[in-house]
Amino acid sequence: MNLTLKVWRQKDKDSKGRIETYVVSDIPEEASFLEMLDIVNNQLIESGREPITFDHDCREGICGACSLTINGIPHGKGSGITTCQLHMRKFSDGETIYIEPFRAKPFPILKDLMVDRSSFDRVIESGGYVSIRTGSAVDANSMPIEKEDADTAFDAATCIGCGACVASCKNASAMLFVSAKVKHLNSLPQGAPEKTKRVLNMVNKMDEEGFGNCTNQFECEAVCPKSIKSEFISDLNRQYGTALVKEALK
Amino acid sequence: MNLTANSLIKFYSSSIGKKVIVAVTGLALIGFLLGHMVGNLKIFAGPEKINSYAAWLHSMPIVLWGARIGLLACFFMHIFTTVMLVIQNRRSKGSRYVYQHTSKATGASRTMIWSGIIIICFVIYHILHYTVRFANDYDSQAYIDATGKHDVYKMLIDGFSWWPASVFYIFSMALLCWHLSHGFSSVFQTLGLRTDKTWGLIKAAGYAYSLTIFVGNCSIPVSILAGWLS
Predict the structure, then answer these.
(1) Which CA distances in Å does B182 have to A171, A217, B15, B23, B186?
(2) A215 CB near a chain B CB, below 8 Å?
(3) Which residues of A218-237 are buried (b: 16+ CB within 10 A; e: fewer)?
(4) CATH for A117-249 (1.10.1060.10, 2.60.120.1140, 3.10.350.10, 3.20.20.60)
């Protein structure tokens, strides 16, 4: 395949970035998007130029490290996949592809296509955990959990924290991410003791980190590689209200 | 008490709290729209009915002024809080994408601030026109009916007979319908009152409600311009 790539290049955090054009040829259709970038980078290195910096890790769609906004869509076209699972056969020969970083104030660009998503880690640190006794593992099924609750918690737990929701949102809102984490832990008995504290702390931290507000457009839901549902956002709104009332009456 | 005050401050300063304020005030305004429309549709029942209805409303000054002040408070809170949210959101947004793409956001949801601004202009004009009756003679003797009541019927006929007023009215109602088509379902989303199962129904109800408000309200100027009411 022959492609024209319009890639965002930015020297470092404080530099001004710009789009640079690369005309590439002989890209195999079976290559993943990241493998395509590897091929381009090899060519850049061979010709003595600076390779394109981008995030990646497991390359099997489960770690949440890869990012990239491809033709305006975080993780590119195709639903329920991360960039590493996007293959070049989805593009047509001769196509022009725009590759940009995930753009949001709380995700500062470090270099080229690589962004700093540690704001998500700080939101998790504020409440995305359960305080449990460590040591030997408890017996399986010793704590009965309704099938429906277990399923809901699991659906929410599939969030890999990649940040595509924030990147797709015109307000850089992290509501889909936070709602998934809250829903996951608050649906289970293990998360129940810290339920109120969790939702208050995580929402406060989300605001503090500078994420925007949800305007109910659900772009996040459309691009989420794990198909996290926007009904969790509605649920987070309700849980937050309930938690505030509980705290006020305490 | 102090804790309650603290919680209120915390609530308003949070992103979700502000959105709840926008949703609750929006819901109050949505409710008012239906009441206002149903009342005004009495024009089709003739001058006697609508004039008596207006006189009845004015016979309860405490209720009338309570409702007016309450609605104005909702109106300003809705606008003020939205502006705060928009400012916050602009701050959160990083650099703009070179390649712009929209996956599923509706046109109405992306233009809420613009439809809202035009609706504000309309509301100011509408209140000056028929409530304050500024720069017109709707308070004069010519607008007292045979039974001594304010002739609301004649005021509406004369007001909408000037076609630019009717055109602006219909245009504003179209924008209001557009604004509500996103706003109605958003209330349920923001207040945590929806699931994936109910979402389709809520959205359909929102479209039906917006369309009802549009058709109901526009039927008045259209009937007057067409000469069906005179």
Answers:
(1) 17, 9, 19, 11, 6
(2) yes
(3) bbbbbbbbbebbbbbbbbbb
(4) 1.10.1060.10
Tens digits of residue pLDDT in B69-78: 999 999 999 9
First to last CA, chain B: 59
CB nearest to A106's CB, from B19, B92, B186: B92
B85 Cβ contact partners less than 8 Å away, ≥ 6 residues apart: A213, B15, B18, B19, B22
Which amino acid is it at A193?
Answer: P
Chain segment B149-172, per-residue pLDDT in tens: 999 999 999 999 999 999 999 999
Contacts of B102 in chain A (CB under 8 A): 219
Residue type, B114: W
- A237 contacts in chain B (CB < 8 Å): 16, 19-20, 189-192
Q: With an 8 Å Cβ cutoff, are B97 and A72 in contact?
A: yes
Token representation of residue A144:
């009965």
Residues of B in contact with A172 (CB under 8 A): 89, 92-94
CB A211 within 8 A of CB A172: yes
CATH for the stretch A3-111:
3.10.20.30
Q: Are strands A96-100 and A3-9 parallel, antiparallel or unpaired?
A: parallel
Pairing of strands A109-111, A18-24: unpaired
- Could you say which residues from 32 to 51 on chain A have a Cβ atom under 8 Å away from some Cβ of chain B? none
Residues of chain A with CATH 3.10.20.30: 3-111
Q: Residue A172's closest CA among B129, B90, B188, B59? A: B90
pLDDT digits (tens, 9 = 90+) for A165-178: 999 999 999 999 99
- The label of the residue with tokens 């970038």 reads A37
Q: Given the structure tokens 């509408």, which residue do they identify?
A: B126
